[in-house]
Amino acid sequence: MASSAPFDIMRVRQDFPILSQRVYDKPLVYFDSAASAQKPRAVIDAIKHTYETEYANVHRGVHYMSQKTTDAMEGAREKIRSFINAVSEREIIFVRGATEGINLVADCWGRQNLKPGDEIILSQLEHHSNIVPWQLIAERTGAVIKVVPVNDAGELEMDGYEALLGDRTAMVALTHVSNALGTITPMAEIIRLAHAQGVPVLVDGCQAIPHIPVDVQALDADFYVFSGHKLYGPSGIGVLYGKETLLNAMPPYQGGGEMIDLVTFEKTTYADLPFKFEAGTPHIAGAIALGAAIDYLTGLGLEKIAAHEDDLLAYGTEQLGKINSLRFVGTAAEKTAILSFVLDDVHPHDIGTILDREGVAVRTGHHCAQPIMERYDIAATVRASIGLYNTRDEIDVLVKALGRVQEIFGS
Fold it and tell me: For the domain bounded by 45-298, which CATH number is listed?
C-alpha cells in the first residue's frame, strides 16, 4: 500500500542512527549502499526485540516461545511473498544471501537438468556471484557458458541475446540491475524471449529490489534472488524465490534437521516446501528483521523512494558531469542509483582514500564484476551508490571532495 505522507528526507535520516556519526570530524556521507545499506532503527529494534522477548528455535517446539518465534518468522515470509507478489509462501526460501540462492539453483537445478553441451547464458554485466556458481556446475556437467555483450553505454545488446538463444540453451541467468553500472536490464523482455524457447530464467535482483518495484508474477521469473542487507535489512539473510513446480522438482541443497519428513538409516524423505531447502536452524532474527525492513520501506512508499533516488541520480549526474577529467562508466538510458566513474590519471583507490578523509564513503575497485571492467579496459572505478537516505547536499559534498582530489593531484 502506498504511503500518503510526503517523503521528508530529514525525518527519514533520523531513522538511521549511524548517519549521525562523524568521520575524521566531518559528517558521515555514505554513498556505499550498493555494497550494503545502513539499517533503520525499526530493523535494529526488531533484532533486539527478538532476542529480548520472543526467541526460541522455530518450527520444532510446542512451547509458547517457540510458537511465538515461529509465528514471527513465518509472518516475515508472508511479508516477503507480498512484497514481490509471489503466488505462495512455499515459493519463498530463506538463504544466507543472494550468493547462496544462486548457488542453490545452480547446484540443485543444474545437476538434475544440465547435460554436456547445454548452454547457460550470462552477460558481461554479471556480479561474480552470478558467474562462478554457473562455471562450477558447468565444469561438473559439461555445460558451456555463453555471454551477452553490452554496448558502450553499458546496455545489453538484445540482438546478441536473441542470437544466443537456441536449441542448446538450458538456462538464462542475468542481473536485473548492474551493481557496477546501475543499468536496468529489460528483464520482462529477456524472460519473454527465453520462455518462447522453453528456457527458464534466474534473475539476480540484489541491486533491483531496493530501488524498483519487483513483481515476480508480472515478470514471470522462474527464480529471483536478493539479499537482505542491501534492502536495509540484516546481513546473513536473503531470499530465493522459485516457482513452486520447479522447486518441487529439485533435490535438496543440504541435508540435516528441518528439511526432513522421515529419517531412517535406510531412507530419508524430505519436508514440503519451503522447508526442503532450509536445513538446520535458520537466521531467525535476520528473517524477522528483514520483514521489519519491508514494513519500513512500504511505510515510506516505494514510489516516493524511487522518485527521490531518481532525482539524486539526475542531480549527481549533472553535478559530477561538470568536473574536468571525470568520465562516467555506464550511461545507460535506463539506470538507477549508481554513479560509477574514473578521473584521468588518478587511481580509484587514491580517490577513495582522499574522499574518506573528507567524510565521504564510496566503493572503489572492480566491484566483484571484473568482466565489465575488462569490457571497458579499466581495472577499477569509483562507485558512489545512492540510498533512500542520501541528499542533494551530500552530492555537493562529494563534488567538493573530488575537487580536493584534483587539487592534490594537480589535475
Answer: 3.40.640.10
